[in-house]
Amino acid sequence: MALKRVGSSAVRALTSSAASSAFTRHLHASPGSKKIVGVFYKANEYASLNPNFLGCAENALGIREWLESQGHQYIVTPDKDGPNCELDKHIPDLHVLISTPFHPAYVTAERIKKAKNLQLLLTAGIGSDHIDLKAAAEAGLTVAEVTGSNTVSVAEDELMRILILVRNYLPGYHQVISGEWDVAAIAHRAYDLEGKTVGTVGAGRIGRLLLQRLKPFNCNLLYHDRLQMDPKLESEIGATFEEDLDAMLPKCDIIVINTPLTEKTKGMFDKEKIAKLKKGVLIVNNARGAIMDTQAVVDACSSGHIGGYSGDVWYPQPAPKDHPWRYMPNQAMTPHISGTTIDAQLRYAAGTKDMLDRYFKGEDFPAQNYIVKDGELASQYR
């Protein structure tokens, strides 16, 4: 490929998944107009209420005028599913596909095979598991996301969800809007966060930010990850590394999921894994819904083994109306919103524009943004 290696540290962070592939696609844009397709959720009447609401189909990351002024074709649609969807009409001749985790366009091996001109898959946000990364690597595509664009947004949201569950907040709110007043119904399962053991499964950018924000609450902080963090940072946060996940889980009053969705983590929290958790455990999951076994979570919430479950990620997304997580007890679920605050949208829109500009100029992206490059997958997706 035309791309130059971006430095030994970036190379070490990548692992080969298709070293023998014969790459026929190149990241550097050839001369001429490019067809760029963006898939975003439709905002309808909300699109005009905030000029910085860039992550919707109507406002299209705020890059339409810029792209079209350079002679490129920019097509945006929310229609991404089904055999006759708008996205599939453009698959055969698009060059760049921009998608988001909040309204994911599932880029399957079949779609990749049909996309003969496709060179670049960009995720406006963090998390590219809606793309068949192995197929993308084998096809010689580049996959990149705006690393760090919404880490603060998600970490803050996780802290909020922990407090909502610990304090049994939602039943109290529902009492107010329904005209009731029954303190005992709330107080019998409301606790302080101080003194509780909180464990994060995954301690990357988001997990570390969450641990830092939890420190003032005087919790017992544990984390499990592929890598142990720098000893100085670990000491500053006051967190303890747990190499064995199964040993960490029974210690925790609260579990927060912060690991990427990979072949290894898909369905990780099944019936057997949940059985290892402390009875009444609270779980927060803003990572990916498919990390959890859907029915196992429902059963554990119904039995009380899981005392509360909160998150904003589902599988599939958007979640169908009959998704059982909508109706299980002691849940505090929302649509996928934690990483798409207005502040985050400004960051990932700017990051997407920057990478498109570099693509047109034949320049490398920031090394940390690559998910697939030169047939290699970033280490977190191994």
From TrEMBL:
The record marks R288, H336 as: Important for catalytic activity. Its EC number is 1.17.1.9. Residues 68-364 form the D-isomer specific 2-hydroxyacid dehydrogenase catalytic domain. NAD(+) binds at residues 151, 205-206, 225, 260-264, 286, 312, 336-339. Keywords: Mitochondrion, NAD, Oxidoreductase. Residues 160-338 form the D-isomer specific 2-hydroxyacid dehydrogenase NAD-binding domain. GO terms for molecular function: formate dehydrogenase (NAD+) activity; NAD binding; oxidoreductase activity, acting on the CH-OH group of donors, NAD or NADP as acceptor. It catalyses: formate + NAD(+) = CO2 + NADH. It is found in: Mitochondrion. Substrate binds at I126, N150. GO terms for biological process: formate catabolic process. It is an enzyme of class 1 (oxidoreductase). The keyword Ubl conjugation does not apply. HAMAP family: Formate_dehydrogenase. Homodimer. Catalyzes the NAD(+)-dependent oxidation of formate to carbon dioxide. Involved in the cell stress response. This is Formate dehydrogenase, mitochondrial. The lineage of its organism: Eukaryota, Viridiplantae, Streptophyta, Embryophyta, Tracheophyta.
